[in-house]
Amino acid sequence: MEVYEADMVAGRSSAVVSDCIRHLQNPDTPPYTPSLRRRERASAGEREEGKAMLLVLQDITLTLVDPVDHTLLHSQPVSSIRVWGVGRDHSRDFAYVARDKNTRVLKCHVFQCDSPAEAIAGSLHQICSKIMAERKNGKAAAGGSSLPGSDVPLQVEFPTPKTELQQSFHVHYLGVTSVSRPIGMDIINGAIDSLLSSTGKEDWTAVLLNVEDATVSVIKEKEEEEEEVLVECRVRFLSFMGVGRDIHTFAFIMDTGNQHFQCHVFWCEPNAGTVSEAVQSACVLRYQKCLVARSPSQKAGSSSPPPPDSVTRRVTTSVKRGVQSIIDTLKKKPSPELPNQ
Fold first, then answer.
1. How far is CA 165 from CA 218, 250, 304, in A?
2. What φ, ψ does residue 136 adopt, rounded to 5°?
3. Which residues make Cβ contacts (< 8 Å) with residue 166, sequence separation at least 6?
4. Whole-prediction pTM value?
5. What's residue 173's pLDDT?
6. Domain spanning 5-122, CATH architecture
7. Tell me, what's the pLDDT at 263?
């Protein structure tokens, strides 16, 4: 499905990708986004719709493989992917946007997976972080040994978050509820539905949601009295976030320790797109800082792994577990590859 360059901006791209997923699932339902248009029926991409395939993430490439004869159907360098996401309504829906190598038109590719798609998104984040770290180290080395140019396509610039992030949003706070797991759109949607059904709009609290590179705080707005901080969360303990089935709803899950997780839910106007992207940028920025926290001299002087409670160790372990679970799920399928999905 074709998308416009103008739609690939902060605050709009996530809503457009979600709209592509929804529209391709229900072609008879018109898209919310006016700029979306269906591809021509004669295009090669259209002919592949509905076909079973294996999605494989290997090195720095996303490939689509025929599950029967293992024929390569499509190959996409990860560095050329503009945006990706997991479906709001179904956690097994996955989509990414990239430019067609022949027509140079931006297209959104949508997949319905056999297992949760969070592992694909997590693996893509890991691959991008690896490429960015290698690129940074290569520039610092100034002529030192680095990966070949073909492995790290320097001509592609990744959208890097600001070094310092601070944004504020006027939203309504529905409340917080305990959840059973730290990740999953089913968990997010369940928490949102629970609070929407148990509260009325008169119960919601008008708040200022402050998003910084290290903290996310919820501040009760008061005209005469001093502002009251209702919630203050460290970004390092934010385990999952997402926009709900209603595009006005947004929620994030915090790991409060001892296997206890809390989900905070918000109502946003005109939609939750900008709030979602701001929190996502804070998470990516935090992760990038962890990757480059130890200088090359520190690495040379110490080969010890990160401490058990470090963010780098927890994020890496979480991604590895997700990828391994997908690999285990697909072991029964006749493929010589190790697909992430």
1. 16, 19, 31
2. -65, -45
3. 210, 211, 212, 213
4. 0.45
5. 96
6. Roll (2.30)
7. 96
